[in-house]
Specification:
4-stranded parallel sheet, two-stranded antiparallel ribbon, 39% helix, binds zinc ion
Length: 264
């Protein structure tokens, strides 16, 4: 028998054995839909749930990344959303992996409250793929996670944005600076805030740590969800004031509002 064939069949046997072991060792099931996990992976979410995340479409605002209507102007091409035409944001560009919807809402909760690092690493791989599709527009020198107020971080024990930023920086072979930004004012309960109030509540709520430098560097700012853009905007302002050359916001999820104003 040719060597290649026996190596392949041994490989198949090993995969089958690993999957069988996974059934025994991972009796808890998918953390989103509770279906049994049948593959050997450290990500405690089934293939179906991972495949159900809905990536953003190709036609997005070149600046903030919000999906644009598929019909365009006279030439069929609208490059910027209304907010970016009036330059609302302090970040140069923002991109997200998928719609903040259904299974992804649950996955983000797992990141926020259960510190599931293999899931964060899976998302980091998706974010890196997104950057790989637009290398000219999304180039960066340093990865910085959006920070929590220290009281919040103490309560939670970790920062979910840092969980994403570290494996992302590793993939991109860039330094990660988790302590560059500080949140100087705690976040009020978002559920009690209108969209307007969210903007005013984060304005000036972030600063760079005294003594740190971002001089002339292009920052990749990482967070879990982009809702109004207010948080990324406030962080970007602080980074630009500290000398950052540019800021690109990168989030796993993006909340898309319907024209009637409710979250999608
Ligand atoms: Zn599932
Ligand atoms: Zn835009």
């Amino acid at each position: 028998m040719p060597v290649g064939v026996s190596v392949r069949s041994a490989g198949r046997w090993l995969t089958a054995t690993a999957d069988a072991l996974a059934n025994i060792l991972l009796p808890a099931g998918c953390r989103i839909c509770e279906a049994p996990l049948t593959r050997a992976t450290r990500v405690p979410v089934c293939e179906e749930c991972l495949a159900s995340f809905e990536p953003l479409p190709k036609q997005i605002c070149d600046a903030c990344g919000v999906p644009l209507p598929t019909f365009g102007g006279a030439d069929g091409l609208v490059r910027f959303c209304p907010a970016c035409q009036t330059k609302v944001y302090a970040f140069g560009r923002a991109r997200s992996f998928a719609h903040y919807d259904r299974a992804l809402v649950k996955a983000i909760l797992l990141l926020k409250f259960e510190r599931i690092e293999p899931l964060a690493a899976w998302f980091a791989a998706r974010l890196a793929e997104g950057i790989g599709r637009e290398p000219d527009k999304l180039g960066a020198d340093v990865v910085v996670p959006v920070t929590l107020h220290r009281m919040r971080q103490k309560e939670r024990g970790y920062n979910q944005a840092e969980l994403l930023a570290k494996p992302l920086a590793k993939r991109l072979k860039l330094p990660c600076q988790p302590v560059l930004l500080v949140r100087t004012r705690p976040r009020p309960d978002k559920r009690l805030l209108s969209l307007e109030e969210r903007w005013t509540s984060v304005r000036g709520a972030f600063a760079t740590r005294p003594g740190t430098k971002v001089d002339n560097r292009r920052v990749l700012l990482v967070d879990d969800v982009l809702t109004t853009g207010a948080t990324l905007d406030a962080c970007s302002r602080a980074l630009r004031e500290a000398g950052a050359k540019s800021v690109i916001g990168l989030t796993v999820a993006r909340a898309i509002r319907d024209p009637d104003g409710g979250p999608r």
